Amino acid sequence: MSARMLLVELRRSTAIPIAIIIISFGVTNFYILELTDQTGLWQPQWAMLAGLQRVTLIVLWPAALAAGAWQARRDRRSGMTELVGTTSRPTWSRSLPAAFAVGICAGLAYLVVTAAGAVAVSTPYQHLGWTPIALVGALSLVAAAWLGLGVGRLLPSVYTPPVLAVASFILLLAPMELSKYRPLTGVWLLTPNMSSPLDELTTLAPAVTGGQAALFAGLALAGLAAAAVAKRRFALAALAPAGLGLVAGMVVVSAAPATGLQLDPAAAAEVCTTDDGPKVCVLRIHADALDSLTGPARQALERMAVLPTAPTVVREVVDDRPGPQPADEVWFASANHTPGEGWEAEGNALSVRVLAGGGTRPCGEVDYRERGLTAAWLWGAYPAPGPPLHGTEGAERLAEWERIKTLPAADQLRWFEGVRAKYLACPGGGTP
Amino acid sequence: MARAVDPAELAPTQHAWEVDAGAVRVRAGRRMAVDGLDLRLGTGVHGLLGPNGAGKTTLIRALATVLRPAGGTLELLGVDVGGRPDLRALRRRIGYLPQDFGFYKRFTVREFVEHMAWLKEVDRRRVPGAVQEALERVGLADRAGDTMRTLSGGMLRRAGIAQALVNDPDLLLLDEPTVGLDPAQRLDFRKLLRDIGDQSCVVVSTHLIEDVAAACNRVVLMHTGKAVFQGAPQDLVDAGADSDLGDTPIERGYSALLAQHREGARR
Fold first, then answer.
1. Can you tell me the distance from the alpha carbon of A241 to that of A253, in angstroms, rounded to the nearest whole number?
2. Residue A188 lies in a domain
3. Do the chains contact at A88 and B87, CB–CB below 8 Å?
4. Among A157, A215, B76, B151, which is disulfide-ready with B155 (CB 3.0 to 4.6 Å)?
5. Which residues have C-beta within 8 Å of that of residue B146, sequence separation ≥ 6?
6. Chains A, B: CB contacts under 8 A, how many?
7. Does some domain include residue A265?
């Protein structure tokens, strides 16, 4: 392929317009969230950045498809079909510069948006496990542009680009809507756009990314082949790799968990204090919040020292970590951390949160009243530091507190140990 | 500018005529627009004259390998295009300006001509020089950086001629090339045609009979799909008498020959 012609096509084809659309839409998507203080959706984790960007493909994928189809009609639109048809260069060779220009611009533009989002990512968890999610997103746009080129060649009508855009938008919207009623599974996992943003600890299963890569590689090849075949009547046959890609994608994705999502074990690994004090551990993704937890967590341990089985360590745990929880450990649910902001309380209020349920995390049928009262009991005062409770619940809880305090000390301890034991056992796992 | 010489350029020609048609028939849609045309064209500038619907554009499109002959024989630069020839090598040696000349609006003039040179597989090292030369020959070098959409009708026509010339064709086909050119540009264009005609076979379809008189060595007059006259412009002049329609001797000759043919066809 001629580098000079590629350069001309980069400037004169739909490559630049589609790149501008992708970049402006993608960057706007990230920074509108910045304006509305929702940066927690992408800034705390690299995989969240990559996942949130994939959501934008619901619009950008149809746009790239239409841009490809529009490009495919250029000769016809310009009245160049006859003249170009009398030149010696074979069709496949003729089609490459524009195809590469559009493909390169669509793919690179997507990665430019990733980079624009990346500058604002702030996380203690540096890793590269998210890059396949971003790269497959870029590949999907290359596939869309080339598929558009191929379909545009097959159906060189002025209506092809808008019809493709609308049809593909509906096709991509379907799983998004479906996901509101039941989790997406199987072939639906292969759609380029994610139906919801990822959270800090969740990542796309590698099998899903792999299946998507296979599908988009097939679509891209099919589109390129359909755009490049000598005779238009062979273009339909050239779309065969799309079918192969779909089959390969479905096979690969079947190895993934049903939801296509999985816990990122490295993000959920523990980072612990290294000084001589009692050990406090947080998830690696919250490593920069360890210092602010350490003091309140140790204060909580001091309050629990009166117990017959006093815990000696505080661990932050993922919300659905299965039990049983050892009695010499305090488990602190990661739901107490707001992505991008930190712990939902500080100082004494944070200590009280650690003490909730007697240093356990919510599990099974959660009774927040008894969890709050056990915390206050350990703290030694009601109301304990934290957001005040009003209304009926506040009154009833106060009445319950006063009833407990009238009990003999042994009965109080028995009541406390009963609540604690229930949450320590927690057979199934936590409640998200 | 010095340029590399392709061995193909030095090879002796194997054919007597650049265009050799024997009773060739070419369809335009359902109509047989060229119907039993005999024609032999060698090096030089050949003017293709005839009323609307005579089959000039269909003939040129067949010569440009857009249309395949439906019958008869047609050899272009020694290649029989009636069978299943390898058109690729032949097309490298043809230059073509269609009657409806389309162009990419967003390309600059230079990019457009460069793109056409690339499509015609002009040797990569020769492309910049060939493009510059073609633009200079049509007087567009000073507009080379402007986009095609900004050109006037006459400039577009010249850009069309430049792209037809850029591969230094042995067979140059120009369908109505002087439409939109102002008088001075037409004078320049005639000189350009004469220059190219020294080396190549140039076929120019036109309604402007004065262009033919001024620039062509040979004239082909078409009517109802056939060549009804072939000769030098002077022969065309000689065919007319003062009583024939027309303001110039060559116009009178044109009218006389057409009238003769119409009468012959009626009889």
1. 18
2. yes
3. yes
4. B151
5. B108, B109
6. 70
7. no
A290 and A152, same structural domain? Answer: no
Contact of A369 with A341, CB cutoff 8 Å: no
Each residue of B112-138: pLDDT tens digit? 999 999 999 999 999 999 999 999 999
Mutate to test the interface with A, among B90, B104, B171 (most CBs of A within 10 A): B104
| Cross-chain Cβ contact B111/A8 below 8 Å | yes
Look at A87 and B119 and tell me if their CB atoms are within 8 Å: yes
Verify that A123 and A178 share a domain, yes or no: yes
Contact A268, A283 (CB under 8 A): yes
Least Cα separation, residue A148 to chain B (angstroms):
20
Q: Are A194 and A54 in contact (CB under 8 A)?
A: yes
* DSSP structure string for A34-73: HHTT-GGGTTT-HHHHHHHHHHTHHHHHHHHHHHHHHHHT
**Is A238 in the same domain as A153?**
yes
Within this chain, do residues A301 and A233 fall inside the same structural domain, yes or no?
no
Q: Which of A260, A284, A304 is the last residue of a domain?
A: A260
Residue-range definition of the domain harbouring residue A380: 270-425
Q: Is residue A431 part of a domain?
A: no
Verify whether the Cβ–Cβ distance A89 to B106 is below 8 Å: no
Per-residue pLDDT of B167-214, as tens digits, reads: 999 999 999 998 888 888 888 889 889 988 988 999 999 888 888 888
A170 and A123 share a domain?
Answer: yes
| B24: its two tokens | 């060739």
In sequence order, the 6+-apart residues with CB closer than 8 A to the CB of A28 are none
